[in-house]
Each structure stands twice: as C-alpha cells, then as structure tokens.
Amino acid sequence: MIWLKDSFKKAYVEKFIEIQGSMPNTGTSWEKYRALVVLIKEKMKISQAAESMNDSSPDQEKQVYYFSLEFLIGKLLSYYLINLGIKDVVQEGLEELGIDLEDLIAEENDAALGNGGLGRLSACYLDSMAFLGIPGQGNGIRYKYGLFQQKIVNGFQVELPDNWLKNEYPWEMRKSDNTVVVKFKGHVRTESIKGKLTFFHEDYEPVLAVPYDIPMLGYGNLNRINNLRLWSAEPIKDDLDWVSFNQGDYSKAVAYRSEVEAISYILYPEDSSHAGRELRLRQEYFFTAAGLSTIIRYFKKKNNSFSGFARKVAIHINDTHPALCVPELMRIFMDEEDLGWDEAWNITVNTISFTNHTILPEALEKWPVEIMKSQCPRIYMIIEEIDRRYREEMHHMHPEKRDLIEHTAIIRDGQIHMAHLAVIGSNSVNGVAELHTKILKTQVLKDFYTIYPYKFNNKTNGVSHRRFLLEANPDLSRLISESIGEDWIRQSESLEKLLPYTSDTAFLEKLADVKYHNKCRLANYINDKMNIQVDPSSIFDIQVKRIHAYKRQLLNILKIMDLYNRWREDPSMDIYPTTFIFGGKVAPGYQYAKSIIKLITTMAQRINTDPALGGKMKVIFLENFNVSLAEMIYPAADISEQISTASQEASGTGNMKFMLNGAITLGTLDGANVEIRRAVGDENIAIFGLKANEVMNYYQWGGYKSWEEYQNFPRLKRVVDQLVDGSLGSSNEFAGIYESLLRDNDQYFVLKDFRSYTDTWQKVNLWYQHKLSWASSCLVNIGKGGVFSSDRAIKEYADDIWHVPYQNEIPGPQEQSG
Ligand code: OAK
CA angle, 699 as apex, 695 and 702 as ends, to 5°? Predict the structure, then answer.
C-alpha cells in the first residue's frame, strides 16, 4: 500500500496548494484531476522511470521495443489507481475532502492514438509487459489530433477533430534532452575514403523529434515502470527558418514549419487501407528513425560493441508501418557505427520481428520508388541494396524459380513492398490467430513460407483482462473474486475455477443480476445521450467495431429489417424483445461504409418510433465508440456479434472482450472465433455461415451468384428490394449498397450467409429464454476467457520471439509496501 487514507489526503491537499495556490475545494474538476495525476507521478517517481530506474546495473537487461503507429490507450487514471492498489483509499480520501473521484476520472481525455484493433492491441501489450516485468517500451507518434470524434447528425457520421491535448495531458513528460534530428529529402553524396565507400546525406530537411514519455504501470508491479515514448515533430528554430527569415524568404520558412509540424499533426483515420500518401511515409520514417536513435544511444551507454546487440534488444514492428526499421537500423550500423554490410545485416535481422495484422489486399503497404527516393534518399539506397542481395541469393539458391523471386522481391513495378521488406529483414513473422497464420502461410505469404518456414509462427491475440474485466466490470469482478479468490487478476487462466459453478443455480442468478445491472447502466447512458428508453430486460445484441464491408454490419441490419417485416406481419410472433446496439467509426472517405451507418440510423428511427411494435425491438447507434465507451458496453452485452466474412478478420479482439464479460458469441468461423469456439465448446457459442476455405474457393472461381440467392429466398429479396423501392424514403441513399449486393456480386457473401445467420439468430433468441442454460453458457465463456488475456499472448512473444524472461508470480498491489 503506497498510501493510507490520511497520508493521501494530506499529500493531495499539499500538492493542490503547491500547484494552484489555493485549497482544492476552490478548484475546477480539471485542476483536481491534474493535481491527482501529478501527485501519483511524483509518488511513483515516474519522472525517473524507464531507463534509469529499471536498469541500474551496468549490464543491460534485454529490452523489448514495440514500434507501432498506433497506441489506443484510452484513459489511465482509474486504471492506474487499480494497478497501484489505491483506488479505494483515493476514492474515500477524496470523498472526505468533498471531491467525487468519478468527476476527476471524467476529466481525462481518451488518448485515441489509434483506429481500432491494431492500436488497442499495442496498448494491451504494453500493459501486459509492464505487469509481467518485461522491460518493454512503446515507440510511436504523439499526434496532436487523435482519431476524430464522431457525431451522428441526421443519421450521418460527421467527423470533428479530437483535440485531446487542448488542456495539456498530465501523464506525459516532455524529455527535451533526448531530442534527435531526423533527416528528410536532400541527396546523398558518395565518396571513397581510405578505400571505403562513405555516404554523406546533404541538403536535407532537418526535423526535430522531441520525445514525450507516458508511464506504463502494470498491475501490482511497482518495481517496473515501463514507458511509452511518443515523438512530436518540431521545426529547428534557429537554423533553417532563421536563415530563411534573414534572407527574407518568409514563404520558405513558413512552408518548412508547417511541413514539419504536419508530421505529428494527425493520425490517419484509415483502418486497414493504405492511402499511399507522402505524409504517411514521412510519419513512418520519422518515428522509426527517432525511436532507433534512442535505442542505440541507450545501448551504447551500457555496451562497447554491437556484437551482442540482438541479445540485448528486441525490436517488434506492429504491421508494416514501422518496417523502415530494417533499412534505418542498417544505415545507423553502417554509416554511423562503421559496421560492414554482413555484420549489420545479421544483427538487424536477428533483432527485428514482425506481426502481420490483415490479409486485406488494400491494406498492404506499397510505396512508389520515387516518393521513397525523394523523402529518404539514403534509406532508398539501402532498400535497393537489400533487394539486390535478396534477388542474388535467391537466384543462387533457386536458379529455376524466377517467378518466386519476382513474387517475393522488395522492389517491383516501381513500388516498394513493405511486407516483403519486413519478412526478409526480420527473424520472426507472425499472424494473430491460428486461421490467420494459416492463411498467411498458404496464401498471402506462401512463397515466403517456402523460403523461410522457420520464421513463421502464430501468436493469437489477447486483451487486457484487467482493463476489460477488472476495471470495466467491477460487479462481475467482485462476484468472481468472492467465489474463487483474486488469483484470476494475475493468472487469467484461474478463471477456469468458475466452471464448477455452471450448475450452481444461486451463482447463476447472481451472474444474471450483475448483467442486468450493467445493462441498466448502459440503458441510462442511452437515455441520457439519445433520449431513447431501452428495456434492460430485453436482449442486448451488440456489434461494436470499425464499420467495414468485411465486418458485415450490413448483414446485421438486413437481419433486423427482416425481423421487423415479419413482426409487423405477425405481431404474435414468438421472439424475445431485443435491443440491437451498434457502434463504430468509418474512415471519412469510405462512402460505402458511411451509407451503412445511414441505413442503421434510418431503420433505428423507423423502428424506435413504431408504436405497433410495443417496444419489442429497439435499434441504437451509439456515437463515438471509443475505449471508454467500450468499457461500458462489453459488460452489458448478451450477444456478441462477430460476423465477418470467414477468412477476412485476422483475429478480432472485441470478441475476446465480450466473452470475458459473459456474452455469447454469434459468429462465423473467422479469426479468433475459431479458437473461442474450441475453448467454450459448440454448446456455448452460436456459429453460422460459410467457412474460410469455402469463401476462398469461391474467390478463386470469381465469387458466387448472389442473384440466385436473392431470387430463391423471398424474405431476403424483400429486404434487399427495400433498399431501393422507396420504403426507406425517397432518396437514392442505399443504391450503392444494393448494387454491391447484386451487380457487384456481393464480395462479402452477405446474401449467401443471410439464411444461416437469421436462423441461428432465432435459435439464440430462443436459447436466451432458458435463463439458466443461458447464464451457464455465459459463465463457461468467462471461465474459458482467461486464455485470451494479453498476459498469455505476451508470454508467448517473450518465450518464442523476444527471448526475454518475465515474472510469473507477481504479488498483488496490496501486498507491496512503499
Ligand atoms: C490496421 C491497419 C493496417 C493493417 C491492419 C490493421 C488492423 O487494425 N488490423 C486488425 O488488427 C487486429 C489486431 O491484431 C485484429 O484483431 C483485427 O482482426 C485486424 O483487422
């Protein structure tokens, strides 16, 4: 325990007075929040954290650096209070000072430096690394604007800027002393010095990379405070623009400043698609180069030679966005540290590991040679040389396989294939669920799998069960701990101890009560925000995630349209009342997905105001789905909709968060759903639809005939026709959706899976009415959910890829003294 209540109160009041010069009761909630964060940081000696505090020995312990363009960390205050074991003390202490902790928690902005799955995964992984005592540091960009805020206006998504730094972000610490210069543009002069080719990058555009550190506090592990280092781009003040001003070239100076600041201005809101914009490449090189310079600087403090580098450093690249780590590390080793190519290459490959997060072709990053050449001329030269040597080596090994070389080369048709660079330049390539890894090996990266079979491995994703269960669902957490003790918080697999309770009626009733309570909480939120009353005893059937054609929110809303049609025709139909809840953002330029939101909100408007329905159905589109809202939604779900076209969702992580909160998955055999089914058994999940191999077969033969599906199932024909026959209003709003289904042959098999989806949904609806059987299956989902904790995933990365030790048994926060 780091504080008793009275010492906390005293420390808090003193801190507030020190910062504000007045008593806390005179301050705003924001000031009170900031004082609390500052106090915690000081108490934890966080400003000395990371490098120095964790590693005072002369010999460096192996460090893991997790490079990601996205870290969707959400709010930290409440979570850290839990991790420090002081939430109750702080809450009570503040209460005695007349302050409501909830008000302070509400002041914190969600740090939304990510789009969705990939970004949240990196936040969960930093969390587990801190918990497990792995020296693991995140490396990313401090975007001035995070993922946009979504408003729904007249049923359409409207994007507003997310100015999360407006008030200052008290968790971060600017570390100006560790600023580095990243060099863009210019040209490379080559000179032979003492018989050795030497490269000089000249006339470059210098960009200052200024680090801001955010502490990563793991549950109960106060001895290890890790760090998320986010880089901000700033112009060099007294150099180029000063020169330009002196010469009167104002426009050049202004252009330079804005070009530089643009680098860390905004997170690209495209999820799983590659826009190929120059600025994005600049972002990628910027945080890669800055992060590597920190690594090298720290390594050199503790080591005299680079020969042991790969034993002391693991660099993980989260998808291909940081793949320039490969040539940049080569550049540093060769141009700055004077290593030869072969040695530099060996160390680079042995240090870097790579995770692929999607098979969508539109997400695969390719950069035109011309852009790379002009932005990063020296890096381009190195990529060219890596490509040349790769081709040569392949030619030597497989002289007859010209096609193989062409298919796997890095530079082809004037483009740089970043996934190829990442595979060739790393020692490990992993997918994020068993099915996804299999698809990588047999389809997307199959040629590479024949060349480097030993690099490929699977690491099924995991989520922080402490954030998404312990913090998000306090009532369920209490029930669990009262029944099986608190081990599950540190050992997620201990949740299995709940399984004997599946036949304990009293326990199942308590579980149902907890769910009801959580549904009331969400219902109140909906009422407050949208002025719509939903019945907490109806089924909460929820699909929250990015809106994307392959995730098939369309299939869900067509099901709802069909149900509505049938209910109106036969009001006595035996269906249990259901509230359908959607949430998720669309990339601003993705018109098709935007029209799906409009379809959902149009149906919501119609259904929610139809008095004849007597409240049997409600449809809710919750605006601005983010980490904080997610924490309220998962605990309230009965049905978890995981209905992507089989083969397309690499893993999914929402599926795991719902499961841990006792929702039943209604899903396809896609991504990690496959493993969820294996964990819980067929009787505790509802699976429907085409299998991945069936979908892939269709793709191979050019798809299926969606027209036939439509013609042969009148209920389906009816909902599809309603998209364009004026039933939903006179505008032509949904013609694009209609076309995608019939004229473009339904690329995502929505019509093909419609019958089995609606049939399965109906069975689930019936099943829900058997309350004990339902609650028992919910409990199996919780009990089997432990394996989907990010602790398990990180242990696998640590064992198989990074080769770093971790602590398995970590005392809880209460047991540590300070
Ligand atoms: C985003 C940009 C480029 C490539 C992939 C993504 C992405 O978010 N992928 C998602 O990653 C998650 C974490 O691994 C998976 O659970 C999702 O299935 C996948 O779509």
Answer: 140
Could you tell me the distance, in angstroms and rounded to a whole number, from the CA of residue 369 to the centre of ligand 1?
26
The ligand 1 atom nearest the CA atom of 432? 14
For the CA of 358, the nearest atom of ligand 1: 5
The two beta strands, 180-184 and 205-217, are antiparallel
- Taking the domains of the chain in order of start, what are their residue ranges? 44-75+110-461+804-815, 539-788
Rounded Cα distance between 593 and 590, Å, is 6
pLDDT tens per residue across span 144-175: 999 999 999 999 999 999 999 999 999 999 99
Report ipTM for this prediction. Answer: 0.99
What pLDDT is recorded for position 817? 39
Q: Supply 299's token pair.
A: 């390594």
Distance between Cα 794 and ligand 1 center (Å): 17
> Which of 358, 364, 585, 647, when mutated, tests ligand 1's pocket best, judged by the most ligand atoms within 8 Å of its CB?
358
Residues in contact with ligand 1 by the CB-under-6-Å rule are 116-118, 121, 271-272, 319, 357-358, 363, 432, 461, 649-653, 671
Question: Catalytic: 657?
Answer: yes
- The verdict on whether 198 is a catalytic residue reads no
Cβ(476)–Cβ(661) below 8 Å: yes
* Å from CA of 647 to ligand 1 middle: 13
Q: Give residue 117 CA to ligand 1 midpoint distance, Å.
A: 5
Q: What is the pLDDT of residues 635-686, one digit of tens each?
A: 999 999 999 999 999 999 999 999 999 999 999 999 999 999 999 999 999 9
Rounded to 5°, the CA angle 425-426-432 comes to 130
Which of 3.30.43.10, 3.40.50.2000, 3.20.20.150, 3.40.50.2300 would CATH assign to domain 539-788?
A: 3.40.50.2000
Fold of 44-75+110-461+804-815: Rossmann fold (3.40.50)
539-788 and 44-75+110-461+804-815 share a CATH fold:
yes
